[in-house]
Every structure is written in structure tokens, then in C-alpha cells.
């Protein structure tokens, strides 16, 4: 590995971008090594260094495929399902409770008539 080319701030050649710039363009470095560095001299301190990647070697950020979307949705549904009453709580079950709030606080449940829905959770 030879020394990396170092460019002055704002004088980066075309075709190079920082990780953040790649990300803004929907790209990622894709495993490539840093291709160059940018240095911005600062007074009293060492120069500010930015790492540049080659845009032509960058890969697109992994697109959201239907399979991935379904997997994510299933994972989210699992996190919303109360392990005690097996119902979709409509929100992510708080880890501190471990169950939906209705199961965690059955006495605080909104009184909906004589023992309506009571016993399902407990
Ligand atoms: Zn529950």
C-alpha cells in the first residue's frame, strides 16, 4: 500500500466523496479502502482529516426488497404482540413490563361493564 493521496480541503478531485456524501447519494463505500484523504489545516491543532472514497467503486445502499420488508414487518409485529394475551397491543411491548399495559395493570383497565374482557389476560 502506497501513501494515500492527500488533497487540500475543497480541492478534492471529481469522483471522490466522503462517506457522508456517498450516503446522501444513496451509496455506500462497499468495502473499498479509503482512496484519499482531505486535510483542512487548523491553527494550533492537527489538521482536520476527511476520508474519501471512490464514487465509481461505491455500491448502492441495500434496497428495501419485499422479502426484507416482510421480515421487518414480522419483527415489528412480534415486538407489538403481548406474550401474555397474545394480542397486538398496537405499540411495542415495553421491555420493563414484558406485557401490554392491560396485562401489566389489570386493575387500571378502563371499566367496561362487569368484568368485560376480564380473565383473558390474567
Ligand atoms: Zn396483554
Could you please describe the fold and organization of this structure?
The mean pLDDT is 84. The protein is 20% helix and 18% strand. It starts with 5 loop residues before the first strand and ends in an 18-residue tail after the last helix. With 122 residues, the protein is α+β, with helices and mostly antiparallel strands. The protein has a 4-stranded mixed β-sheet. A two-stranded antiparallel ribbon has the order 3-6. The chain has helices spanning 19-24, 66-80, 101-104, and strands at residues 6-8, 16-18, 27-28, 36-40, 48-54, 59-60. It is elongated, with a radius of gyration of 27 Å. The protein has 3 helices and 6 strands, in the order ββαββββαα. It has 2 domains: 6-60, no CATH class; 66-108, no CATH class. A hairpin with a 7-residue loop joins strand 4 and strand 5. The longest helix has 15 residues, at 66-80. Zinc ion binds at residues 82, 84-85, 87, 99-100, 102-103, 121. It comes from Streptomyces parvulus. InterPro entries: QRL_CxxC_CxxC (IPR048142).
Amino acid at each position: 500500500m502506497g501513501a494515500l493521496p492527500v488533497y487540500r480541503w475543497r480541492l478534492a478531485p471529481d469522483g471522490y466523496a466522503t462517506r457522508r456524501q456517498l450516503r446522501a447519494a444513496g451509496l455506500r463505500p462497499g468495502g473499498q479502502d479509503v482512496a484519499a484523504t482531505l486535510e483542512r489545516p487548523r491553527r494550533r491543532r492537527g489538521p482536520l482529516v476527511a476520508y474519501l472514497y471512490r464514487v465509481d467503486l461505491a455500491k448502492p445502499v441495500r434496497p428495501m426488497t419485499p422479502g426484507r420488508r416482510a421480515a421487518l414487518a414480522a419483527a415489528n409485529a412480534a415486538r407489538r404482540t403481548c406474550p401474555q394475551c397474545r394480542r397486538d397491543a398496537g405499540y411495542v411491548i415495553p421491555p420493563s413490563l414484558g406485557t401490554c399495559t392491560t396485562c401489566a395493570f389489570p386493575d387500571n383497565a378502563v371499566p367496561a361493564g362487569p368484568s368485560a374482557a376480564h380473565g383473558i389476560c390474567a
